Task: structure prediction
Amino acid sequence: MKWLSSICVLAATWAVGLVQAAEDTEMKSVPLRTHSLESPYLDSDMASRWWDFGGDTMIRADKYVRLAADQPSQSGWIFSRIPLTANNFEIEMEFSIAGKGNLHGDGFAMWITKERAQPGDVFGHTDRFEGLGVFFDTYKNNRPGVVFPYVMAMMGDGKTTYDRANDGKANELGGCSARGLRSSSVPSKAKLTYLKDESLSLDLQYKTEGTWTKCFDLKATDSMPLKLPNQAYLGFSAHTGELSDNFDIVKVETKNLYQPRASIPRTKDGKKLASSFERSSKKSGGGWLWFFFKIILFAGVCGGGYVGYNAYRTRQRYNRF
Result:
């Protein structure tokens, strides 16, 4: 009986160890203070150590960074002072779009671009940019069948102009309609996740607090490489025309994403090598489902052996009498 109990204990320990190893391979994160922003936004000398701002941007230390006010012909920006060098990152921002009028425009944008603090006519930023622009467009120019506000991403090559006449239709990598994003009853948030040269996704919160809606989830291909400049700055800008709104940034949290190096076996040339467990899973074709099935099966064998052993001892006891 002792040997059976020992095997069961070893099996349980082995299973727990594998589960912990699997958890260690999950993506970890480290906050990047240099690219995060929160109240009071400014230092004691009324400046920011990590950010520059200009144009019509106003800062109310207890509430927001207002990129553009609810007035015609406003344009403002705020940009990080140092480049965002993380290969993989997540940027979560809280923002607000609201105004007095029933008609409103134009919109604001998040930038991860080679250009830094260069005002222009693309939501307050220069055109022909190199890098990523995520546009929160609140005014419909000419895009039939699309509900506004509309959120979309564009990867600029430094030469291509933004398709302003058609609300960026020719430039869109991915996007979604977000009815209710303006004057939302819950804190409006956007979460951008980028894995170097692999994927780009955007999630929005504006319907229910704590509930995220997927806007787009892109995977890199030969025809659609998701490559950012080696030196890119994080920024935000907004623009109003004849129609206007208040475009406010409330909070920005940027995180560097990484996998623990100990959990990523590599070859001599630095390439990722599948673990023995991953290789055996692929060969068996079962993955995690098959792995847990085997654990349950082994536990069943242990349990069956224990029950059988007790039944055998009971039978022997009765046979003596």
In short: The first helix runs from residue 2 to 24. Residues 180 and 206 are 7 Å apart (CA to CA). The chain has two domains: 2-24+266-320, 28-258.
